[in-house]
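Justification of resources, computational component.

The compute hours requested in this renewal are based largely on the per-chain cost of generating structure records like the one below. Each record pairs the submitted sequence with a full structure-token output. That output is archived, and it is also reused by downstream analysis tasks.
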Amino acid sequence: MHIYQNLQSQAVDVLPKEHDELGDLIAIDGSLIDACLSMHWADYRKGSKKAKVHLGFDLNHGIPRNIFLSDGNGAERPFVSMILSPGQTSVTDRGYQAHDRFDQWQEEGKHYVCRIKASTRKKRIKHNEINPDSNIFYDAIVLLGTPGVNQTKKPLRLVGYTVDGTKYWVATSRYDLTAEQIAFIYKLRWDIEKFFAWWKRHLRVYHLIARSEYGLMVQILSGLITYLLLAIYCREQHNEKVSIKRVRELRIKIQNETRIDSSSMVGSKQKYHTISACYANT
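The structure output for this chain reads:
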């Protein structure tokens, strides 16, 4: 963890900060890891074991941030407060919709941009002006939920917009941005999905080596450390983001260097044996 956190600091210094005008954006999501039956701590369902990684992904720098591990049934919403720092904005999907959490995050000074279900009850307090030329169809200050059941205590902002015929409803505590910027922030959430897919596919971090919760966390951190090293290398050496092209180039380079080192060792051994034989003959 110490190495991981230090590499994060290095990466932040090296990588450009995108979307600076939108604030400090952290996409939060969970990812399941298939576990073997001997991993008793990784509860999921009968006859199946899974662990779950809870990750905060820095959308401004394109790197992983805080990480936590739980069993496969671990609730995801409580980890938002653990991952997020005051002043930061979480960007989450519908699975994180929880009206009491919306109140809690505002009390903690933590912002959110969270997609909600279209069927959620809305009590409009104030309607904001909408640009008729945009894809925004709703922008208002509201209370969400059913009164006396699960209604939010603190007002929040609700933005509705359409993309390719699909309507999106996004709840947020960000009043300083335009509705179009809120819609764009939610679009950036897909970056964490792409990161998980790339990370699993190319770094193969979920091929189980460890069995204990501690050992699995070490294994996951090793994969995140590798990604941070790649991010720093690609920016410093090629002024670009991490790509499979650069990963393949590095693999070939390392393989070639390994072959050279192996040849040198073999040559050294042969030379040693020749000298030894000469001494033995004399």
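The beta strands are 25-35, 43-45, 48-58, 63-71, 89-92, 111-116, 122-127, 136-144, 156-163, 166-172. The two ends are 57 Å apart (CA to CA).
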